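Contributing new records

If you add data, match the layout below exactly. Sequence lines come first and carry their own label; structure lines follow with theirs. Keep one chain per record. Anything else will be rejected by the validation script.
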Amino acid sequence: MASEIPIPIGVSAHHVHLSQADVERLFGEGHQLTPRSPLSQPGQFASEEQVRLIGPRGSVDRVRVLGPARGSTQVEISRTEGYALGINAPVRMSGDIQGTPGLYMEGPKGQIDINEGVIYAQRHLHMTPGDARRLDLSDGDIVRLRVGGGRELIFGDVAVRVSPKFKLEFHLDTDEANAAGVNTGDQAFLDGIQKRGNRR
């Protein structure tokens, strides 16, 4: 049964995606991100580079830049960090940044002021087409997932994302993971389907 298939959990700490132009503004002309460690999703990596986020109320230091460079700059923080920065960001899927707040970002070679790009990441579930068939899910579905840990919780509004480039994993931010008492490598299970996406 689909509800008995274990789904690995990945806890996503605050991080930044940078365009190549912003990489160079923050770290120097011609600079390329330096891979530090691979991430669970194929081709993605945590880089050696870190930045400082500066908002109206405060700042957050040593925020890791993830690679490779993207087409646009984006900042993913938890709600706790939003309070510290003085920023009220919307819950969005990665890449959906139109109309979101901006902030200042500081690197060793410069500072940039982004007009938009700060989000709280929507809970989401990466999977391959094979995983989708096993779980009877499709890209765009919205599901509920049950997690155990220290406090059993059911997380709703989890967006399903299907691609041959993905690996099966449920992504939570640090606030949500702490509330549930779970860590990267723990497991979740499908609890139900809230909404079906656009099926062909």
